[in-house]
Amino acid sequence: DAMVIQNPRYQVTQFGKPVTLSCSQTLNHNVMYWYQQKSSQAPKLLFHYYDKDFNNEADTPDNFQSRRPNTSFCFLDIRSPGLGDAAMYLCATKPSGGAVTQYFGPGTRLLVL
Amino acid sequence: AQKVTQAQTEISVVEKEDVTLDCVYETRDTTYYLFWYKQPPSGELVFLIRRNSFDEQNEISGRYSWNFQKSTSSFNFTITASQVVDSAVYFCALSEAGAGGTSYGKLTFGQGTILTVHP
Questions:
Q1: What is the DSSP letter of A85?
Q2: Residues of chain A neighbouring B101 (CB-CB closer than 8 A)
Q3: pLDDT < 50 stretches in chain B
Q4: Which of A27, B29, B38, B111 could make a disulfide contact with B96, Cβ separation 3.0–4.6 Å?
Q5: Cβ neighbours of residue B13 closer than 8 Å, sequence gap 6 or more
Q6: Interface residue B43 vs chain A (CB under 8 A)
């Protein structure tokens, strides 16, 4: 089945130790998004890719970076995780053009020790 | 700027009760899209429905129904005969069309409503 896959589902890292979260999709969608969702809060968009064009939200900290080597894969890099970065990280995709519905992966829950 | 308000933080019902989740939105765009997503304890956001601003027809899908009223900027969601499996956080979201139909589709979410259905 076509889908959005996120690995790992749970990630534990140490304060200040770089960590990478991965997202892949078999939907062949042009647009990919990364959201951060802290406990009891709504998802918050960090950035998105339209094909290879990277678009950062204005309030996304510099600590967060992303790479998209091809259509299928997108990575979220947290260069120096702080305790406040512990959250669920959700990847979503959508086709380009008039399509508007985003399809989400299962998320990666990040714990920072 | 767009905004979505879900005034109900938590709702608790007993199985088989009907429950309505409220959603009110603000936008300056004339073309926009409204969504409901379900987030069970596993964390995945599950798409339930999308409504276009130019289509105010209400929709029913099994036990789920949605009432879209532009006059009151509301997009409410009703679950009929609720079940324990309906327990989740429900998010209402808004996306504006953007210029030339090329919006990257940024979703603005409400704060979510935690629905607990007791047996």
A1: G
A2: 97-98
A3: 100-102
A4: B29
A5: B19, B82, B115, B116, B117, B118
A6: yes
User: B14 and chain A: CB distance < 8 Å anywhere?
Assistant: no
State the count of interchain CB pairs (< 8 A) between A and B: 54
The minimal CB distance from A102 to the residues B44, B105, B111 is found for B105
Torsion of CA A36, B3, B85, A37, to 10 degrees: 10
Query: Are the beta carbons of A109 and B43 closer than 8 angstroms?
Result: yes
| pLDDT for res A99 | 66
Residue B100, C-beta contacts closer than 8 angstroms, at least 6 positions apart: none
Contacting residues for A103 by C-beta, under 8 A, at least 6 apart: A4, A27, A29, A92, A93, A94, B47
Mutate to test the interface with A, among B10, B104, B113 (most CBs of A within 10 A): B104
Identify the burial level of A95 via C-beta atoms within 10 angstroms of its C-beta, where 0-12 means exposed, 13-18 middle and 19 or more buried: middle
CA-nearest of A11, A39, A6, A16 to A110 is A11
Quick one: which of A37, A38, A34 has its CA closest to A22? A34
Residue B2 to residues A29, A34, A50, B28: CA-CA distances in angstroms? 25, 20, 22, 7
Quick check: bond before B41 cis, omega within 30?
no
CA B71 to chain A, closest CA, distance in angstroms equals 23
pLDDT, one tens digit per residue, over A4-31 is: 999 899 999 999 999 999 999 999 999 9
Cross-chain residue pair A98–B101, CB shorter than 8 Å: yes
